[in-house]
Amino acid sequence: MTLNWWTLGFQTVNVLVLIWLLQRFFWRPVSAMITQRQATIRKSVDDAHAIEAKAAAALATTVTTRAGFEAERQTILADAHKAAEAARASLLDTARTQALALQAAATAAIEAGRQAADAAWSGRAGQLAIGMAGRLATRLEGAAVQALFLDSLVQAIRALPEAVRAGLAVDGVTLDAVSDAPLDDAARAVAVTAIHGAIGAQPEIGFKVDASLIGGLELHAPHLTVANSWRADLARIHDQLPGESQPAPRPKASNAPLPLATVPTAA
Fold first, then answer.
1. Are residues 3 and 100 in the same domain?
2. What total of structural domains would you count in the chain?
3. What is the pLDDT of residue 215?
4. pTM of this prediction?
5. Is 146 buried (19+), middle (13-18) or exposed (0-12) by CB count in 10 A?
6. Which of 3, 46, 162, 239 is 20–30 Å from 62 (CA)?
7. Which stretches are transmembrane (predicted)?
8. Domain of residue 79, residue span
9. What does DSSP assign to residue 221?
10. Above pLDDT 70, what percent of the chain?
């Protein structure tokens, strides 16, 4: 094979021209385009990384915020639970206190009712006993009983202080001898003599009748009453009965029952 240097030279020149042309009109624009494209891609990647970083930061902020919300929610729930427990305990204490108060009030009411019932039954029994005693007293009659009442009255007058007895004999003062039934002249004379002797003076004495005495003989002065009757004794017994607050009953009177006691009282 024969090498033609002219042909080789022309081919070499053609290749060089082709390379120059390619470099001049192809590789440079393409290289510039590639470089620009790379820059655009790099910028896009950087922007993507920035956006990703912002998203990550936003996500971290969101997670932190949600964690704060969860902690706050847990705190609120815990506070609400504590408040509910405190309210429940307070309600239970209030209910327990009210229940104890109601129980105490009910116990007190039951006890008061029992005491009232006992007092009522005691009072009724006492009134019944006093009524029976009054009815029995109306069956006692006779001069002996009247003499006993007069003797009790004389003892009561003598038991008065001397100054009080002296006041009964003041001029112008009239004393009343009160009996449950009218006295005859003889009984009046005996009563006047006995009363004068007990007083130690001779004041004016009048006689009155009060059937509610049931039995007895009392001496009434303007400022003094010497009680000496079944009515006074029954009233005193009635007042001493437990649970009694009402006035003593006054049974119907007859002539002269026996007195239970003689008590001088000043009016």
1. yes
2. 2
3. 79
4. 0.43
5. buried
6. 46
7. 6-27
8. 1-137
9. E
10. 78
